[in-house]
Amino acid sequence: MPRSTSPRLPRLAASPGPFDARPLEPGEDLVAVGGEVVPDLVWHAYQHGVFPWYEAGGPVLWWSPDPRGVLPLAELRVARRLARTLASGRFRVSRDTAFAEVLHACAREHSDGVWIHPEMEACYTALHRAGRASSFEVWRGKELVGGLYGVLLGRIFCAESMVHRERDASKVALVEAARRLALEGVELFDVQFVTPHLARFGARAMPRRDYLALLPR
């Protein structure tokens, strides 16, 4: 989980309330503790650069990383081998045809354990039904072999998680999602944290203050 050095954290009610990461010191990530993972509150959080991430059985923790991992879609990089895979027709990519299945696979098939809890699955499924969350599915024949999901926030797509059951399937989901969303005017993938894997696609660190400044647009 992200780090935190903030000594005082606001506690939240279940109803939508303010999230404000601006008073945090650089490098502090934890914005608030408490509340419930319900659609209105989570949507409100995303609009302020905040997302929930917590352990099962514990209080809900609300985070705004500094720096923020972002992938500008105009700077997307695709390795040659992956480009050949994309061009081969080996996989078929769809959008929003199996959101619940992708979400559930992300929740249950990660090697680093379960961090997408049942209440989170219910919340993001509700956001999808409201047109605020989207999924990209990767198929081999009729079998779902990979995908990703995230929250749509204007020109930012907040990518939450991705999964693969075959080699390259999650990479194909990422590239196809980036390309298709770019055609719709989306400019930035919010990936929360930069990993070596995401850095190969062009992800980089952005100061939180710069990320928050993008949200009103």
List keywords for this structure.
four-stranded mixed sheet, 2 domains, Alpha-Beta Plaits, single chain, alpha+beta, about 220 residues, seven-stranded mixed sheet, 7 helices, 11 strands, globular, Aminopeptidase
The coarse silhouette is globular
User: How would a textbook summarize the main sheet?
Assistant: 7 strands, mixed
Biggest sheet strand line-up: 6-7-8-9-10-5-11
Strand and helix order: EEHEEEHEHHEEEHEHEH
Contiguous helical run count: 7
Low-pLDDT stretches: 4-8
- Per CATH, the superfamily of the largest domain is Leucyl/phenylalanyl-tRNA-protein transferase, C-terminal domain
CATH class placement of the largest domain: Alpha Beta
What's the CATH architecture of the largest domain? 3-Layer(aba) Sandwich
Oligomer: single chain
pLDDT averaged residue by residue: 90
Number of strands: 11
Tell me the fraction of residues in β-strands, as a range: 25-35%
Enter the CATH topology name of the largest domain: Aminopeptidase
Give the C-alpha Rg. 17 Å
Count of domain modules: 2
Distance between the termini: 28 Å
